[in-house]
Amino acid sequence: MCRAKYERTRTRVIDPSKVREQHLRLTYGISSDRYEELFIEQDGKCAICRRPQLEFTRRFHVDHDHETGAVRGLLCVSCNTFLGKITANPELIESSLKYLEKWS
């Protein structure tokens, strides 16, 4: 008689707050308490566009210097993406301003 072997798996309950705490600590070197301090310092708004967190479905991103790792502030996804693109090519800042001035 042949019995099928079943692999036993353990079911773990994952605590999202612990996952977030670990992510912040390992990726940016800050605690969730520090994230909340930054959030309060910025009045719950994106550091660049100043739109409130309530307008977004996701939490703000932690903006940091990729060379030094220094945390600069919290940004909405749009501003974080924009900043990432222009810091890769700083000439885009001046070019973007000239373009907007031309059409305003």
Any descriptors?
4 helices, 2 strands, mainly alpha, His-Me finger endonuclease fold
Fold and architecture overview:
The chain has helices at 16-28, 32-41, 77-88, 91-102; strands spanning 61-64, 71-75. The protein has a two-stranded antiparallel sheet with strand order 1-2. It has a domain at 16-77: His-Me finger endonuclease fold, CATH 3.40.1800.10. The protein has 104 residues and is mostly helical. The chain is built from four helices and two strands.
Give me the CATH architecture of the domain at 16-77, please: 3-Layer(aba) Sandwich
Q: How much of the polypeptide forms β-strand, as a percent range?
A: 5-15%
Helix share of residues?
40-55%
In the CATH scheme, what's the topology name of the domain at 16-77? His-Me finger endonuclease fold
Number of helices: 4
Fourth CATH level, the homologous superfamily of the domain at 16-77: His-Me finger endonucleases
Query: Gap between N and C termini, in Å?
Result: 82 Å
Secondary-structure element sequence? HHEEHH
| Low-pLDDT sequence parts | none
Q: What's the SSE blueprint?
A:
Blueprint: H1 16-28, H2 32-41, E1 61-64, E2 71-75, H3 77-88, H4 91-102
Antiparallel strand pairs: 1-2
Task: Give a short synopsis of this structure.
The protein is mainly alpha-helical. It has helices at about 15-30, 30-40, 75-90, 90-100, and strands spanning about 60-65, 70-75.
